[in-house]
Amino acid sequence: MLIRPATESDHATIKRVVRAARINPMDLDWRRFLIAQDADAGNIIGVGQIKAHNDGSCELASIAVIPEKQKQGIGSAIVRALMAKESPPLFLFCQAKLEMYYTRFGFRKIGVEEMTTYYKRMWRLVNAMPEFIRANVHVIVMKWDG
After folding, report:
1. What is d(CA 142, CA 60) in angstroms, rounded to the nearest whole number?
2. Using an 8 Å Cβ cutoff, are 61 and 92 in contact?
3. What are the CA-CA distances from residue 92 to residues 10, 17, 37, 118, 138 (Å)?
4. What is the distance between the alpha carbons of residues 48 and 51, in angstroms, rounded to a whole number?
5. Whole-angstrom Cα distance, residue 36 to residue 5?
6. pLDDT tens string for the chain (146 positions)?
7. Within 10 A of 34 (CB to CB), how many other CB atoms are there?
């Protein structure tokens, strides 16, 4: 597996991988992405990005691996590569059931009092969405301090 910066020609595949993972398909600027590429076949098997927000915070986002390559350490490799190129603090949104996964990388769940303006607004919005409430899905914010 090779992890590399995305190119413009990867944009459609990034969108496809993110949508297949059923995660937020908004704000997928290919210039912010790292790509996990199969060393033998050359195809994209995973993606992830760092998004900068207007309040100065940065978010680890859009971590997705194609279904047939999941549970093989590809997502972890993408997370580590993105963290290696970013200075703390780094934030992320995830379903509460993924808290333990991100704890392995040094992230910790934070309360509203530690959230920046962007995360407060988005956390309140997402957790009030009727489809999330009906599905009993709770989204948390996590932070990596380095």
Report:
1. 10
2. yes
3. 23, 19, 23, 11, 14
4. 10
5. 9
6. 999 999 999 999 999 999 999 888 888 999 999 999 998 888 999 999 999 999 999 999 999 999 999 999 999 999 999 999 999 999 999 999 999 999 999 999 999 999 999 999 888 888 787 676 677 778 899 999 99
7. 21
CATH topology for the 2-144 domain: Aminopeptidase (3.40.630)
Distance CA 93, CA 131 (A): 17
Q: Domain spans of the chain? A: 2-144
- In angstroms, rounded to a whole number, what is the distance separating the alpha carbons of residues 130 and 128? 6
Alpha-carbon span 27 to 40, nearest angstrom: 30
Q: Which runs of E-coded beta strand occur in the chain?
A: 2-5, 33-37, 44-52, 58-65, 90-95, 108-109, 139-144
Query: Among the residues of 6-98, which ranges form H helices?
Result: 11-20, 74-84
